[in-house]
Amino acid sequence: MKKKSKKQLDRDNPYQMEQDSSYIGSIDIVDKTPYDLEIEDSVDPKKDWNALHAYQAGYLKREDEYPDDSKDLRDYLNGWGIHKQKKGSYSCIGYAVTDMVYWHFVQKGYEGEPFSARFNWIAAKETDKKSRPTTFISKAGTTLKAGLDVCRKYGSVPDYILPNKKEGNFEGTPEQFYAIASRYKINSYYNLLVPKKSQRETQIRIWRQWLLRNGPILVRIKMDNSWNTYKEGRIEKYVDNFRGKKHAALIVAYDKDGFVIRNSWGEEWGEQGYATVSYEYALDAFDEAYGVIFSTNQDVGFPPLDDADDESFWDWWW
Questions:
Q1: What are 89-136's pLDDT values in tens digits?
Q2: pLDDT more than 70, % of the chain
Q3: Minimal CA–CA distance to 173: which of 158, 161, 159?
Q4: Tens of pLDDT along 266-280?
Q5: What residue spans of the chain are helical by DSSP H?
Q6: Which CATH class is domain 64-294?
Q7: Which of its termini does the chain have fewer beta carbons within 10 Å around, N or C?
Q8: Burial class (CB in 10 A: 0-12, 13-18, 19+), 261
Q9: Residue 56 · residue 65 · CB < 8 Å
Q10: In this structure, are strands 71-72 and 246-254 parallel, antiparallel, or unpaired?
Q11: Cross-strand bridge partners of residue 189
């Protein structure tokens, strides 16, 4: 029998992973991303309110043409800056969700501190109905809807209450914490994916109109290697080569050629923390998408309509 090398012995030792960081480098891993990415599937997406319901509630409008050639929502986020999530954690969902909520509050006149991504991320993991506890595990994922449900049910807290960059817990009472959080709740959210992947033109129009009328869109991205090397320009074509890695980010702008994405890998990544992707790329890479309604009296500029049904809506809306 051939004698095993020292490296082979190490690889057979289940405890070696904890003792020797070189273990990870000895395995054939395709992705080279500097961040761990695992945003899990949202639960029961078919039960979500979708674009049809948003239309019936007055948050989307039937259009024969694109409403505008471009829309850019970054101005309301510039005061916060681009986050740089901690390597080895799945905290991207906390940053993406709180960025979206912060945008809604700022454009309504909020002048306070940004919100705590740490609270949203940890609370989402604690309440996402998993079969085992994962709050204390950095490399445990959660779902977009879990993060949104935290904002809908409990709210958000300013960053000084539970800082992203500091350890430790809130020193007050639960009643104090959640009384503060309740000031910053969202009213609802909508699933903005079309039911059929073949309805690509309808999908782009829904996303563009939501950005124009309601705000940023939270998306889950099936990551490919283009994100590791991206510096500037537009990512044109999606190549599925990342073995299931998925990431949370925001769509914050569009023009005639594609979308602008706000990432959480620091300002040194991409175009000062942002990336531009083609519509083709977005259709192939974004497999979950949600939009938020800030309050029930949000001004949409036109009355709610109910002259559509689930059978015909997706085919004739546009």
A1: 678 888 999 999 999 998 888 888 889 999 998 899 888 877 677 777
A2: 73
A3: 161
A4: 888 889 889 999 999
A5: 6-12, 16-19, 22-25, 51-56, 92-107, 117-127, 144-153, 174-181, 200-213, 226-229, 279-285, 313-316
A6: alpha beta
A7: N
A8: buried
A9: no
A10: antiparallel
A11: 292
pLDDT in tens, 125-183: 888 877 677 777 777 778 899 999 999 999 999 999 988 777 778 889 999 999 999 99
Question: Of 87, 91, 90, whose CA–CA distance to 34 is shortest?
Answer: 87
Give, as one character, the DSSP assignment of residue 14.
T
Residue with tokens 């914050």: 252
Indicate the burial class of 234 (C-beta count within 10 angstroms; 0-12, 13-18, 19 or more): middle
- The C-alpha atoms of residue 272 and residue 199 are separated, in whole angstroms, by 33
Please check the confidence at residue 209 and state whether its pLDDT lies above 60.
yes
Q: What gap in Å lies between CA 78 and CA 27, rounded to an integer?
A: 40
Structure tokens, 166: 């500091």
Cβ atoms within 10 Å, residue 24 = 9
Q: Is the pLDDT of residue 290 over 90?
A: yes
DSSP letter assigned to residue 150? H
